Amino acid sequence: MLAYTVRRILVSIPVLIASTFIVFLVVVDSGDPVANYATSRQPPPSKAAVAAFARHIHADQPVVERYWNWITGVLHGDFGPSVQPNLDIGHDLFSRFQVTVTLVASAMVIALVLAVLFGVFSAIRQYSAADYTITFLGFLFLSMPVFWFAVLLKQAGIWVNNATGSDFLGTIGEKSTYLNNDTLWNEFTDRVGHLVLPTITLALVSFASWTRYTRASMLEVLNSDYVRLARAKGLRRARVMTRHALRTALIPLATVTALDVAIILGGAVITETIFQWHGMGEMLVQAATTLDVYRTMAWLLLSAVIVIGFNLVADLLYAVLDPRIRYD
Hints:
mainly alpha
């Protein structure tokens, strides 16, 4: 497995380089930050100032040279210059990453747990009232746009806070600004309160599709010969379900979870914007608005690494979930 992991990482490097180069061309071609700088300031900057700004963001270089300087700089921890003065893109990216990873990780864990529990229960109780109810809820959440669901939950949170006279369900930001230097417990409960609504938004949308995959996979496994053989041998039902059926049924879920990481990150951008979190989503929106090429590329590079990493983890989990799979 170690040799397989190393091979996958080595194969991922040229894929990452090729994808970032294509995205770099698209981002550079999406707008002219130099022209935006020249026309958006009052009073208008001088020609010398515009030329200095172009040199600062490397806009005076050919595109291929700009990409080479950027990608080699990333290897040394330099993510390039920003159009915003005195902004360290690397420091800004990783500080915002800590905010976003809390939201995304919480949503994925909750969605996975719910998807496994409800998917397995729905498969075992096939065509029952509970199965139809879970199926209806799955399609309901699946059909909800993330932005609409997030706004709906935000309004519900405001209503609950007004009705209860509390502010536990945070609707703005990832924490309250008035709790700086407060007790550790108060800061913890405040962050949990702000995490509830955005997490529900991302978790339920992902849970909806993952439950369907789990149900379909579990039904297929339950009808397989080796599960029937295990039950015929007199093994307990709980052991057959957990050791034989569930492990194999989780393989498709591991695949779709890895593939959905990119979708979840995209959903996090919308969710963070609606709930006004200062995470990677806000960073991408600001970078796109100000035509900040290197700031946009930093977000895309980290997202690409995360997606590739999750796909690698999913491949490795196959051997853990199914002992018949071996990597040479």
